[in-house]
Protein backbone atom coordinates (compact mmCIF):
# COMPACT_ATOMS: atom_id res chain seq x y z
CA UNK A 1 0.00 0.00 0.00
CA UNK A 2 1.50 3.36 -0.94
CA UNK A 3 1.38 6.52 1.16
CA UNK A 4 -1.76 7.92 -0.43
CA UNK A 5 -3.62 4.63 -0.20
CA UNK A 6 -2.70 4.36 3.47
CA UNK A 7 -4.20 7.75 4.31
CA UNK A 8 -7.29 7.30 2.16
CA UNK A 9 -7.94 4.05 3.97
CA UNK A 10 -7.53 5.69 7.37
CA UNK A 11 -10.01 8.45 6.61
CA UNK A 12 -12.44 6.09 4.86
CA UNK A 13 -12.57 3.63 7.76
CA UNK A 14 -12.34 5.82 10.87
CA UNK A 15 -14.41 8.70 12.08
CA UNK A 16 -12.66 12.03 12.42
CA UNK A 17 -13.05 12.07 16.22
CA UNK A 18 -11.58 8.57 16.49
CA UNK A 19 -8.14 9.14 14.95
CA UNK A 20 -5.34 9.35 17.51
CA UNK A 21 -4.28 12.88 16.49
CA UNK A 22 -7.81 14.33 16.88
CA UNK A 23 -8.03 17.60 18.79
CA UNK A 24 -11.29 19.21 19.69
CA UNK A 25 -9.53 22.54 19.50
CA UNK A 26 -5.99 23.09 18.18
CA UNK A 27 -5.22 25.52 20.98
CA UNK A 28 -1.41 25.42 20.81
CA UNK A 29 -1.35 26.01 17.05
CA UNK A 30 -3.83 28.87 17.37
CA UNK A 31 -1.83 30.49 20.17
CA UNK A 32 1.39 30.21 18.19
CA UNK A 33 -0.19 31.69 15.07
CA UNK A 34 -1.66 34.52 17.14
CA UNK A 35 1.76 35.14 18.72
CA UNK A 36 3.35 35.49 15.27
CA UNK A 37 0.98 38.39 14.97
CA UNK A 38 0.64 38.67 11.21
CA UNK A 39 -2.28 40.45 9.59
CA UNK A 40 -5.44 38.40 8.97
CA UNK A 41 -4.83 38.71 5.21
CA UNK A 42 -1.47 36.91 5.40
CA UNK A 43 -1.27 33.64 3.42
CA UNK A 44 -1.26 30.63 5.74
CA UNK A 45 -0.94 26.99 4.75
CA UNK A 46 -1.79 24.01 6.93
CA UNK A 47 0.37 21.21 5.54
CA UNK A 48 -1.22 17.80 6.11
CA UNK A 49 -4.22 19.56 7.53
CA UNK A 50 -6.20 16.33 7.30
CA UNK A 51 -9.59 16.78 8.87
CA UNK A 52 -8.19 19.14 11.53
CA UNK A 53 -10.46 21.99 12.52
CA UNK A 54 -7.54 24.45 12.58
CA UNK A 55 -8.88 25.93 9.34
CA UNK A 56 -12.37 26.32 10.89
CA UNK A 57 -10.87 28.24 13.81
CA UNK A 58 -8.76 30.46 11.56
CA UNK A 59 -11.80 31.30 9.43
CA UNK A 60 -13.67 32.19 12.62
CA UNK A 61 -10.81 34.53 13.51
CA UNK A 62 -11.27 36.18 10.07
CA UNK A 63 -8.03 34.95 8.48
CA UNK A 64 -8.86 35.33 4.80
CA UNK A 65 -6.02 33.73 2.81
CA UNK A 66 -6.01 30.10 3.90
CA UNK A 67 -4.68 26.99 2.17
CA UNK A 68 -4.95 23.39 3.27
CA UNK A 69 -2.80 20.66 1.75
CA UNK A 70 -3.30 16.96 2.35
CA UNK A 71 -2.46 13.78 0.51
CA UNK A 72 -5.92 12.38 1.27
CA UNK A 73 -8.97 13.32 -0.75
CA UNK A 74 -11.21 11.82 1.95
CA UNK A 75 -9.68 14.07 4.63
CA UNK A 76 -10.08 17.18 2.50
CA UNK A 77 -13.66 16.28 1.64
CA UNK A 78 -14.51 15.75 5.31
CA UNK A 79 -13.28 19.24 6.15
CA UNK A 80 -14.97 20.78 3.12
CA UNK A 81 -18.29 19.18 4.09
CA UNK A 82 -17.95 20.37 7.66
CA UNK A 83 -17.25 23.92 6.49
CA UNK A 84 -20.04 24.02 3.90
CA UNK A 85 -20.08 27.33 1.99
CA UNK A 86 -17.08 28.58 3.98
CA UNK A 87 -14.93 25.98 2.17
CA UNK A 88 -15.21 28.08 -1.00
CA UNK A 89 -12.89 30.64 0.57
CA UNK A 90 -10.06 28.16 1.19
CA UNK A 91 -7.44 26.98 -1.32
CA UNK A 92 -7.36 23.16 -1.28
CA UNK A 93 -4.43 21.07 -2.43
CA UNK A 94 -4.78 17.31 -2.62
CA UNK A 95 -1.06 16.61 -2.87
CA UNK A 96 1.91 14.82 -1.38
CA UNK A 97 3.87 17.65 0.27
CA UNK A 98 7.11 16.18 -1.09
CA UNK A 99 5.78 16.85 -4.61
CA UNK A 100 3.92 20.08 -3.95
CA UNK A 101 4.12 22.88 -6.51
CA UNK A 102 2.25 26.14 -6.30
CA UNK A 103 2.81 29.64 -7.65
CA UNK A 104 2.24 31.70 -4.51
CA UNK A 105 4.20 31.92 -1.26
CA UNK A 106 3.09 31.64 2.37
CA UNK A 107 3.76 33.81 5.42
CA UNK A 108 2.90 31.01 7.84
CA UNK A 109 3.60 27.33 7.18
CA UNK A 110 1.91 25.08 9.78
CA UNK A 111 2.49 21.34 9.98
CA UNK A 112 1.24 19.20 12.85
CA UNK A 113 2.36 15.59 12.57
CA UNK A 114 3.39 15.36 8.91
CA UNK A 115 7.12 16.07 8.75
CA UNK A 116 7.76 13.32 11.30
CA UNK A 117 6.45 10.71 8.79
CA UNK A 118 9.28 11.55 6.40
CA UNK A 119 11.73 8.82 7.35
CA UNK A 120 14.06 9.15 4.37
CA UNK A 121 16.60 11.93 3.87
CA UNK A 122 15.35 12.24 0.28
CA UNK A 123 11.75 12.99 1.34
CA UNK A 124 12.87 15.45 3.99
CA UNK A 125 15.02 17.21 1.41
CA UNK A 126 12.07 17.53 -1.00
CA UNK A 127 9.86 18.85 1.80
CA UNK A 128 12.44 21.42 2.87
CA UNK A 129 13.21 22.49 -0.72
CA UNK A 130 9.49 23.21 -1.20
CA UNK A 131 9.27 25.02 2.11
CA UNK A 132 12.32 27.10 1.23
CA UNK A 133 10.86 28.02 -2.15
CA UNK A 134 7.35 28.75 -0.89
CA UNK A 135 7.99 30.53 2.40
CA UNK A 136 7.92 34.31 2.03
CA UNK A 137 10.92 36.42 3.03
CA UNK A 138 9.52 37.07 6.52
CA UNK A 139 7.76 33.75 6.68
CA UNK A 140 7.45 31.72 9.86
CA UNK A 141 7.05 28.00 10.33
CA UNK A 142 5.42 25.81 12.97
CA UNK A 143 6.28 22.12 12.80
CA UNK A 144 4.86 19.78 15.44
CA UNK A 145 6.35 16.29 15.76
CA UNK A 146 6.47 13.52 18.34
CA UNK A 147 9.24 14.21 20.80
CA UNK A 148 12.13 11.96 21.81
CA UNK A 149 10.07 10.47 24.66
CA UNK A 150 6.98 10.17 22.47
CA UNK A 151 5.61 7.29 20.39
CA UNK A 152 7.74 5.72 17.66
CA UNK A 153 4.75 5.17 15.38
CA UNK A 154 1.70 7.12 14.31
CA UNK A 155 -1.19 5.61 12.38
CA UNK A 156 0.84 2.36 12.32
CA UNK A 157 3.61 4.08 10.35
CA UNK A 158 7.16 4.64 11.63
CA UNK A 159 7.99 8.24 12.44
CA UNK A 160 11.10 10.22 13.36
CA UNK A 161 11.09 11.73 16.86
CA UNK A 162 12.62 15.18 17.30
CA UNK A 163 14.08 17.38 19.99
CA UNK A 164 15.37 20.91 19.41
CA UNK A 165 18.88 19.84 18.43
CA UNK A 166 17.72 17.22 15.96
CA UNK A 167 15.12 19.39 14.22
CA UNK A 168 17.51 22.34 14.00
CA UNK A 169 20.05 20.08 12.28
CA UNK A 170 17.42 19.12 9.70
CA UNK A 171 16.46 22.67 8.80
CA UNK A 172 19.85 24.37 9.14
CA UNK A 173 20.61 26.95 6.49
CA UNK A 174 16.89 27.51 5.88
CA UNK A 175 15.25 28.05 9.28
CA UNK A 176 16.25 29.22 12.73
CA UNK A 177 14.44 27.76 15.74
CA UNK A 178 13.27 30.43 18.20
CA UNK A 179 10.66 28.76 20.38
CA UNK A 180 9.42 25.30 21.37
CA UNK A 181 6.22 24.27 23.10
CA UNK A 182 5.92 20.76 24.51
CA UNK A 183 2.55 19.08 24.81
CA UNK A 184 1.20 15.80 26.08
CA UNK A 185 -1.63 15.10 23.69
CA UNK A 186 -4.33 12.79 24.99
CA UNK A 187 -5.71 10.62 22.22
CA UNK A 188 -9.41 9.74 21.96
CA UNK A 189 -8.50 6.34 23.49
CA UNK A 190 -6.84 8.19 26.43
CA UNK A 191 -3.22 7.40 25.53
CA UNK A 192 -0.50 9.99 26.02
CA UNK A 193 1.52 11.30 23.08
CA UNK A 194 4.42 13.67 23.68
CA UNK A 195 4.63 16.38 21.03
CA UNK A 196 6.99 19.28 20.40
CA UNK A 197 5.82 22.34 18.49
CA UNK A 198 8.89 23.95 16.94
CA UNK A 199 8.66 27.59 15.79
CA UNK A 200 11.09 28.91 13.20
CA UNK A 201 11.95 32.07 11.35
CA UNK A 202 13.77 32.17 8.07
CA UNK A 203 17.54 32.35 8.25
CA UNK A 204 18.33 35.81 6.93
C1 LIG B 1 -1.28 12.49 11.89
S1 LIG B 1 -2.30 13.27 10.73
C2 LIG B 1 -2.35 14.95 11.32
C3 LIG B 1 -3.49 15.72 10.73
C4 LIG B 1 -3.57 17.18 11.16
N1 LIG B 1 -2.36 17.91 10.87
C5 LIG B 1 -3.92 17.28 12.61
O1 LIG B 1 -3.09 17.75 13.39
O2 LIG B 1 -5.04 16.90 12.97
C6 LIG B 1 -1.22 13.40 9.33
C7 LIG B 1 -1.91 14.02 8.11
O3 LIG B 1 -0.95 14.24 7.11
C8 LIG B 1 -1.41 13.74 5.88
N2 LIG B 1 -0.17 13.32 5.18
C9 LIG B 1 0.64 12.30 5.50
N3 LIG B 1 1.70 12.27 4.68
C10 LIG B 1 1.54 13.33 3.83
C11 LIG B 1 2.30 13.83 2.76
N4 LIG B 1 3.45 13.25 2.37
N5 LIG B 1 1.85 14.92 2.11
C12 LIG B 1 0.68 15.52 2.46
N6 LIG B 1 -0.08 15.08 3.48
C13 LIG B 1 0.34 14.00 4.15
C14 LIG B 1 -2.37 12.63 6.21
O4 LIG B 1 -3.33 12.40 5.22
C15 LIG B 1 -2.99 13.15 7.51
O5 LIG B 1 -4.13 13.91 7.27
In short:
With 204 residues, this protein is of the alpha/beta class. Helices cover 30% and strands 29% of the residues. Strand 6 and strand 7 form a beta hairpin.
Tell me what you see in this structure:
There is one protein chain. With 204 residues, this protein is an alpha/beta fold. It has one domain (3-82, 101-202): 3-Layer(aba) Sandwich (Rossmann fold). The chain contains 6 helices and 9 strands; from the N terminus they run ααβαβαββαβββαββ. The strands form 2 sheets. Strands 3-2-1-4-5-9-8 form a 7-stranded mixed sheet. The chain is globular. The mean pLDDT is 97. S-adenosylmethionine (SAM) is lined by residues 3, 7, 21, 48-50, 52, 69-72, 75, 96-98, 112-114, 117, 154-155.
Number of strands: 9
From the alpha carbons, calculate the radius of gyration and give it in angstroms: 16 Å
Number of helices: 6
Q: CATH superfamily membership, which one?
A: Vaccinia Virus protein VP39
Class based on secondary structure composition and strand pairing: alpha/beta
Mean pLDDT metric: 97
Strand order of the largest sheet: 3-2-1-4-5-9-8
Helices and strands, in order, run as: HHEHEHEEHEEEHEE
Major sheet: 7 strands, mixed
* N-to-C span: 41 Å
Key attributes of the depicted protein:
204 residues, alpha/beta, 7-stranded mixed beta sheet, 6 helices, binds S-adenosylmethionine
Break the fold down into its secondary structure elements and pairings.
Layout: H1 3-13, H2 27-36, E1 44-47, H3 54-60, E2 66-70, H4 73-83, E3 90-94, E4 106-112, H5 121-134, E5 135-146, E6 153-154, E7 157-158, H6 164-171, E8 175-186, E9 192-202
Parallel strand pairs: 1-2, 1-4, 2-3, 4-5
Antiparallel strand pairs: 5-9, 6-7, 8-9
Amino acid sequence: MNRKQHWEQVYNTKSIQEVSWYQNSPIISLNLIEKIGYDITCPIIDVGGGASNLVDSLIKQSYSNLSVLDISKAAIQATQQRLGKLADNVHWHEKDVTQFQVDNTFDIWHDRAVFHFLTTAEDRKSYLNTLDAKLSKNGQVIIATFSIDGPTKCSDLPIVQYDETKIQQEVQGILQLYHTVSEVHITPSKKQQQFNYFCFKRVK
